[in-house]
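Our consortium's second objective concerns turning raw sequence data into structural hypotheses that experimental partners can test. To show how far this objective has progressed, the report includes one record in full. It was chosen at random from the queue rather than selected for favorable results. The single chain below, 330 residues long, was entered without modification.
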Amino acid sequence: MPSLAPAIAEIRLAVRIALADLPEGATVLVAVSGGADSLALAAATGFEAAKRDLRAAALTVDHGLQDDSAAVAAQAAAAAGRLGLDALVVRVEVDGDGGPEAAARQARYRVLRDAARDIGATAVLLGHTLDDQAETVLLGLARGSGATSLQGMAPVREDDDGLRWLRPLLGVRRETTRAFCAAADLQPWDDPHNDDDRYTRVRVRQRVLPVLETELGPGIAEALARTAEQLREDASAFDEMIHETIEDIVEHAEAGISVSVAALAANPAALRNRIIRLVVDSEFGVSLTRAQTIEVARLVTDWSGQGPIDLPGCAAARHGGRIVFTAATR
């Protein structure tokens, strides 16, 4: 019996671990673009799902951003079908804020979520690799957006309705997915956008990370991924502390919500700022920047009678011993 290629063994093991907690007979949906990462993930998922009596489906999203996008999507779906997955292609209109890359990502996740619910999937599997994680951490560092951004992508995330988002390959290098495809005789599609240096992520991939590897030595991508993992652990601990604290210091107010000034002042700055961000996000669905958060915190730590602070979607003001957040008036 021929030995199993190391790349195939590594990726099958990663997928096996990711699927381990799913109930027998569950349905999983794999996002398949046709690239090496998603093809390797689809192949390993098809193999492991059959062993565990799971139903595996695949969804390819045609963003319509390239002239041959329909043909590429059809080829990806056909490849997923040959791997034993029930394959589907959905065409979307990409339109939104933040540029075409962000708009395409938003459209893709929306379609994946809808498809997962339509077929009763327990989990959606995404093909992000360790290299993607390292790039995400570097991009977050460049934006100066704080520890939340530096946490990168979580290997497991669960929606309020129980749908799980799994990234089995976050510990796998991108080169391993290519080796998997070569060993399995799969023909991946190379997205030309991945070589277009108009995109910041492409410049990080092709220029920044190689320079770091050259100047600082090998292992930079792994180190960045470890940093993300450590920060997620810290954030999880913080979140537990915040939710334990917030029940005692938050009250509903007319057209909004209020927080005790004394309780906020008694907490360290890091915890105080997280509470402010969580309250605003939970009540109004808005993510505050650090500058906005600090300005609200000054109502607690540097109060000199200043008036309300206008924030995205809401306003914050100090009334006696409470910080009151109210919905923005139109």
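The partners drew two points from this record. The radius of gyration is 23 Å. The domain at 6-222 is CATH 3.40.50.620 (Rossmann fold). Both points have been shared with the crystallography group to help prioritize constructs.
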